[in-house]
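Sample entry (286 residues):
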Amino acid sequence: MAELLLPVGDATLCAETFGAAGDPAVLLLGGAASSMDFWASDFCASLAAAGRFVIRYDNRDTGRSTSYPVGQPGYTGAALTTDALGVLDALGITRAHLVGVSMGGGVAQELAVTHPDRVASITLIATGAALSRPADSEPLPPPAERIQALFTAAAPAPDWTDRTAAIERVVADLATFGGSVTLSPAEARSVATTAFDRTTDFAASQTNHWILEQGPPDPHALTDIAVPTLVLHGTEDPFFPFPHGEALAREIPGAQLVPMPGVGHEYPPPQVWPTVLPAIVAHTGG
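Predicted structure, serialized as tokens:
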């Protein structure tokens, strides 16, 4: 399970694989400002043990992938979508199952409609609609107040170059986004520490994704998604409250919803792996 440095477009992306290359490929797509470390190694290994070839990778500006100056990302939001295809190309994979968390779920939706020949299925975790919803759709609830407060000018950022301060802020943010079923403080600190120590420029990793130019909205709709879709959504998600997951399952043709009781806006914590892992394995078995 050695790390691989893959040439992808104008960047170099760091990836890691689990399992046998001949098994069905599962590409894990991370959330904004998070390196591949947030996909737990044991989670990846469990999927591989079930007969899947699992790939996780660092997005640009995270982990050991190409980093850009703070406040000056040399790419747009669209690059994070095409980078996923670039990782598959670099590994010689024609078609894969996409499993995305939050922003990664948005990438999965976009690829499902723009490159359906490359997408065997999508699994959307803690994800909102990245494509348009039916015109008569009911409005969905906004993020909880504690989440909105994080994105205001009044919320001071730590010195991201200070290892201790940065790690403690990530631990605090994980708790803020988490539900009643979440990582323990020790588990969260372990992930945050690994991510900090692996990341070329942690300040860039925590800021650049939030200021990317996104370009015009994708013209497709959720109803255009024609690949098998699994929705895994925490019942206590404070960023995309649970009705967002229900809407995805209702509006994407044939989608299946599996609630994660007590889980917030986060990578699936170990407490729900007994539900999440079999669901993904079953969904990616076709």
